[in-house]
Structures are given as C-alpha cells and as structure tokens.
Design goal:
Blueprint (H helix, E strand, L loop, with lengths): L4 E7 L5 H6 L5 H5 L2 E5 L13 E7 L7 E2 L2 E2 H9 L2 E7 L1 H5 L9 E2 L2 E2 L9 E4 L6 H12 L13 H4 L10 H6 L64 E2 L2 E2 L8 H14 L2 H11 L8
Parallel strand pairs: 1-2, 1-3, 3-6, 6-9
Antiparallel strand pairs: 4-5, 7-8, 10-11
Cofactor: [4Fe-4S] cluster
Pfam families: NiFe_hyd_SSU_C (PF14720), Oxidored_q6 (PF01058)
Protein name: NADH ubiquinone oxidoreductase, 20 kDa subunit
C-alpha cells in the first residue's frame, strides 16, 4: 500500500476560493485517506514547520513584504519551495498573479520568479479551479503517476480543451445567432456578452460545476479565468473592429472564420432563430 501524500498548503494573497472549491469535492473523505495535510490554514492540522514534503500547494499570489506566519510571504514560499518534491500553483492568482501580485511561474504573461524551476511546478489555474481538477492532481501525485503538461505547465487532461467545447450554446455560435442579454437560456453569449469560451483552456462545460451547470448554461459568459490575461478589461464586451471580433477562436484562421460566419448568416437557421424569438416572448417550450 502506498504511503499517504504529505502536503503543505500555504495561503498567500488569497480569498480562499480555491480551498472552498476543494472542500466541495464530492468524494473528499476518500481523498483524505490518500493525503496527509501537514499544514493548511483552515483545516485541523499541525503548526507549520519548514520541512520536506511531497507536495507544496500555494494558493494565492506572491507579494513582497506581505507578512505570513512570522516571515515575509516570499521568504516563506522560498524556504518551502526548495524542500518540496513537487509544487502545485493552485488558482489563477498562484499561477499568473491575478489582480494582487505575481504567480510562482508567471507574472501575468511574463516569466515569474520560479520560472527556472518549472520542472517541479504544476499549474492549476481557475478562479477558482474546479474541485475535480484539484482531486485529479492529488490522486495522480499520490499514486506516483506522471501528469502530462501543456506549454504553460497545466495538466493536459484538463486544459487540452476549451471552455467552448461542450457548451450547450454551440449551435447558436456556429450559426451566429446571439443573445442580447444575460440570463437567457437561448442564443450565443460571444458577440454581445464577451464570452471567452472560444479562447479559454478548461473543461468547465465537460466537467460541470456541482455536476449540473457552468457559466454559459446559467446564462453568464465565460470570463476566461484560466488564462494569463484574466481579468481582462471590459469583462462583458467582445472587442470588434468594423463589426468583426478582434480575437478569433483558437485554431481557426481569420479568413476561415469570416467565410464561415458570412455563410452562416446568409443561410439563416430558422429553427434556432424561432427558438430565440419564442424564448424572448416567454414561450420556453422546445420546438417539436
């Protein structure tokens, strides 16, 4: 039987959203059978010791001269970083810096303080990350399995997708039929509401939140919270130039996008257009 994974979880500049997400993991009791938290600021655990561990988890951004447990934050992270076998940057603040400071490996889109040590870092962005993502990483490390990472050190099993994949509004996106307001059941949220799903690496529409929903399913655009440029200016706006989106969905050339968009608009999918019109008029029944 494998020994438990010894973990030290440090709170940097954080709102504790990642911790609260983790505590919502549906099988958390079985996870505690595999993981021993030597320290966590909110769990019942021992006082922090500067010691070796299998995994150091950093939740939150780094910030100079920020006091933490008798050290400056950056000094504390440095002391623990080099004693850990692996380091998990948990959440967008720890990965990219978010709004408050800088991340372990990145400072927004620039190289961060620990970039040269990237071989021992796993990045798990999200504001917050899905609890299943956190459990996946802990399971893989506890079972001594290799985690395939992308070019930003994010697990490919989670971030090889875009948030757009699995979105229930994809057909509206393809036919360029847009919702004009938040909270609607029908219509695409990309053009008018600033949805970042086509540019955002995540499995949010494949691994649903609370096993039932996601932002687009609830009528709210994807904010792109797993990407280095989060939060972007004008969060609910799609930048356009002469009516054309400034950014084109990942993997599609601008020429191909414009060609397909023109064809879709000229053909006019009456079934989807009627669904959107009926929804606006208060008739939420599916078309027969």
């Amino acid at each position: 039987m494998l020994s438990k994974l010894n973990v030290i979880w440090i709170d940097a500049v954080t709102c504790y959203g990642c911790t609260h997400s983790f505590l919502n993991y549906k099988e958390i009791s079985s996870l505690f059978e595999k993981v021993n938290f030597e320290y966590h600021p909110l769990f019942l655990s021992n006082d922090l010791e500067i010691k070796q561990c299998d995994l150091l988890i950093v939740e939150g951004a780094l910030k100079n001269n920020y006091p933490r447990l008798g050290y400056s934050l950056n000094e504390l992270i440095s002391k623990l970083f080099f004693k850990a076998k692996k380091v998990l940057a948990l959440g967008t603040c720890a990965v990219y810096g978010g709004m408050f400071g800088e991340g372990l490996m990145y400072n927004k889109e620039q190289k961060g303080h620990y970039y040269k040590c990237r071989d021992k870092i796993i990045n798990l962005p999200g504001c917050p990350p899905h609890p299943d993502w956190i459990a996946f990483v802990l399971d893989m490390i506890s079972e001594n399995k290799k985690i395939a990472l992308d070019d930003l050190n994010r697990p490919k099993d989670i971030f090889a997708y875009t948030s757009h994949m699995g979105c229930t509004r994809n057909e509206y996106f393809e036919w360029k039929i847009d919702a004009e307001n938040f909270g609607t059941k029908e219509g695409c949220l990309f053009y008018f509401q600033g949805c970042q799903g086509p540019f955002t690496h995540s499995s949010c529409n494949k691994v649903l939140w609370n096993e039932v929903s996601s932002k687009p399913r609830a009528g709210t655009p994807c904010f792109g919270c797993t990407e280095p440029n989060f939060p972007k200016n004008d969060l609910f706006k799609t930048d356009t130039f002469m009516g054309i989106p400034a950014n084109i969905p990942l993997g599609v050339s601008k020429r191909a996008y414009l060609t397909l968009s023109g064809i879709a608009k000229s053909l006019n999918n009456e079934r989807l257009s009627c669904k959107l019109i009926n929804y606006k008029c208060g008739d939420n029944n599916e078309d027969k």
